[in-house]
């Protein structure tokens, strides 16, 4: 008779353990589903914000000018906007700039066009000249955004 009770208690213990384990698995599954829903909502929100930012960045078509201080003096640029995007940037005047620095600083122009923003890193070795170009482009883009 003692063996019967031992087996009965063991059977009940196994059933309780399995039930508890299944409960833990269910709760974990629910938590994972909730996390996936939150991630999907976050991704949707971020894509919506990206669309809003893209809309905000659109500029009015036209040719805009800007001027800022470079290494040796003022740097004048011309920014051409086509279809709401920066299509071309030309340096129209930089008479007092050192030719070597200006030549290196001009490497910032493709970076600005690719980023569709003047918020890019300056060119090492031509920091002041490239900063002049960036600030002049920023001034032109502010005009294009109005």
Helix-strand layout with pairing:
Layout: H1 2-57, E1 62-69, E2 74-82, E3 85-93, H2 99-105, H3 108-115, H4 127-145
Antiparallel strand pairs: 1-2, 2-3
Helix pairs in contact: 2-4
Could you give a short description of this structure?
The protein has 146 residues and is an alpha+beta fold.
Description:
The chain has 146 residues and is of the alpha+beta class. Helices cover 62% and strands 18% of the residues. The chain has helices at 2-57, 99-105, 108-115, 127-145, and strands at residues 62-69, 74-82, 85-93. The chain has a three-stranded antiparallel sheet. A hairpin with a 4-residue loop joins strand 1 (62-69) and strand 2 (74-82). The longest helix is centred in the N-terminal third of the chain and has 56 residues, at 2-57.
Task: Name some characteristics of this structure.
alpha+beta; 146 residues
């Amino acid at each position: 008779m003692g063996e019967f009770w031992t087996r009965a208690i063991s059977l009940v213990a196994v059933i309780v353990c399995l039930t508890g384990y299944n409960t833990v698995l269910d709760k974990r599954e629910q938590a994972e589903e909730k996390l996936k829903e939150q991630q999907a909502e976050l991704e949707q929100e971020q894509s919506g914000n990206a669309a809003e930012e893209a809309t905000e960045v659109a500029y009015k078509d036209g040719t805009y000018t800007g001027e800022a201080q470079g290494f040796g003096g003022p740097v004048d640029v011309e920014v051409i906007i086509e279809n709401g995007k920066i299509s071309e940037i030309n340096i129209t005047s930089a008479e007092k700039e050192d030719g070597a620095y200006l030549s290196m600083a001009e490497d910032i122009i493709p970076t600005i066009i690719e980023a569709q923003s003047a918020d890019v890193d300056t060119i090492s070795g031509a920091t002041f000249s490239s900063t002049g170009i960036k600030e002049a482009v920023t001034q032109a883009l502010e005009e294009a955004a109005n």
